[in-house]
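Support request from a user on the community tier.

User writes: "When I paste my structure tokens into the form, the page sometimes reloads and wipes my input. The last time it worked, I copied everything first. Here is what I submitted, just in case something in the input itself triggers the reload:"
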């Protein structure tokens, strides 16, 4: 089933949207397969290339989503891009989530890189309490990485098409 993924700013303004296919779901999780449609995007720590395969985990009960990125050219795992956000809202034909600016990059060997702290610091649509909460939520996804929880079970060599455990 095709669904629309809609990312919002904390102000409520739509940031962007795209489509993907629901490949698994539980009452609190939807796993989406999406293909990167834009031109190559060099982020410094990795490059998203047109056609890269994204397996995306959206949670109704977590303050993050996890995007597993696989190279279209080699089939190798590039890493995981984790958005710190409010829990996702699921609708019949869409998933909506509100970005809290911070992101985390996780390499295929489990090293992490906290991203966009400057965006959070300068955000005009979040107060200091909300900003501190976003920082705490970034720690929770780092704990998932260390514990090899959810999609990060793959760091232990567990091979699966997708991970439904929270």
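"...and here is what came back when it finally went through:"
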């Amino acid at each position: 089933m095709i669904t629309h993924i809609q990312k919002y700013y904390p102000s409520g303004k739509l940031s962007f949207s795209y489509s993907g296919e629901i490949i698994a779901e539980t009452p609190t999780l939807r796993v989406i397969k999406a293909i990167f449609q834009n031109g190559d995007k060099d982020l410094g720590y990795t490059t998203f290339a047109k056609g890269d395969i994204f397996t995306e985990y959206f949670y109704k009960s977590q303050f993050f989503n996890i995007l597993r990125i696989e190279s279209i050219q080699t089939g190798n795992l590039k890493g995981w891009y984790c958005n710190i956000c409010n829990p996702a809202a699921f609708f019949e034909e869409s998933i909506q989530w509100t970005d809290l600016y911070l992101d985390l990059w996780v390499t295929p060997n489990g090293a992490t890189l906290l991203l966009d702290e400057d965006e959070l610091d300068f955000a005009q649509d979040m107060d200091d309490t909300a900003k501190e909460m976003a920082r705490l939520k970034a720690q929770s996804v780092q704990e998932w990485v260390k514990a090899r929880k959810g999609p990060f079970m793959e760091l232990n060599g567990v091979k699966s098409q997708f991970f439904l455990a929270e």
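Agent notes: The reload is a front-end session timeout and is unrelated to the input. The chain has a mean pLDDT of 93. The radius of gyration is 15 Å. Escalated to web team.
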